[in-house]
Every structure is written in C-alpha cells, then in structure tokens.
Description:
Layout: H1 2-24, H2 30-57, H3 66-72, H4 84-111, H5 115-120, H6 122-139
Helix pairs in contact: 1-2, 1-3, 1-4, 4-6
Amino acid sequence: xxxxxxxxxxxxxxxxxxxxxxxxxxxxxxxxxxxxxxxxxxxxxxxxxxxxxxxxxxxxxxxxxxxxxxxxxxxxxxxxxxxxxxxxxxxxxxxxxxxxxxxxxxxxxxxxxxxxxxxxxxxxxxxxxxxxxxxxxxxx
Length: 140
C-alpha cells in the first residue's frame, strides 16, 4: 500500500506539472506541445483516479493533500519559465521516475499476491516507455 501512495503522489505532481506546462508553453512548437500536454494531463488525471480507487479497494485511504504529495513524491514541482524543449526533457525525466515507481508497486503487489494491481499497472510502464521514445525523437 505504501508504494501505491508514493505512486499516487508522483502522479499528482506529474499531473500538475503537465497543467503548468500546458498553460505556459510558448515558441515554435506551441500548438503541438499545448495539445500534447493536454492529452497527457487528461491521461494522468485518469490514472490518479485509478490509483486512488485501487488504494480504496485495498481498504486504504488515499492521500488527498498536496502537502502530503510533496512530502513523498520523487517528482518535484516544475518551473514553467523554460522552453518547450526543456519542458519535454522534464517530462521525460518524470516518466523515468514513474516507470521506476510503477515497478516498485509491481514488486510489492507480487509479494502480496495483489492480482488486481498486477492487472492494472503493467500497461502504465509500456505507455510511459513509448511516450519517452516519442519525446526523445521530438528533441532530436
């Protein structure tokens, strides 16, 4: 359960950073990145809800205060005073953190034989890996 809470916190920071980037992106790639960031924060919002509901399903109480998220999240609040390319690089780094955190949850779920969590989370990893491949190609 602890790893799910940490994953929830990281997804909440990731979500907020994406909103920040969506609002503040500029430059030549504005239209492309503005739309992509919106797509990503909508997906992150769904995942936040899914993770919180999984915690509830396991008879836990999902963290709900941003101060709690900041205290345990590896992803930090992003600075919006940067270029679109810097925003993309920050997103790539966040994806790497999320991949590691999902894998931590999968280890915990395997040990506790939590089939529901094992059913939900593997797709998160493959999706994040694919997004990173595309964002790295964007930065070339």
